[in-house]
Sequence to fold (112 residues):
Amino acid sequence: MFLVFSLYGGYFGAGFGIITLAFLGLTQLTDIQQMNGLKNLAGVSVGVADCTYFISRGLIDWRILPLFVIGNLAGGYYRAKYSAKLPTKILRTGIIIIGSIVTIILFYKFRS
Fold:
């Protein structure tokens, strides 16, 4: 089942983190920090597979790559740094709110 989520994440990354957390919520895991770490590991794995494919096909615009690298490194660092300090209830609530907002926006965007 997670293979399907990974294929989705590789093709269209929006919502991959939320879907991954929802999937991990169906397992025996209860610690949101542990689930968040596994989600990040899954995201890195999918990202490496994506990069390998895109580089092998010559689909990288190397001029803008540094911007993506800097943004991803900064975002990953600060996300990990600050989410680990948040209480579980606040982190879960934030994930639900952000996931709901993204779902609504994408629903209306692609419905038209």
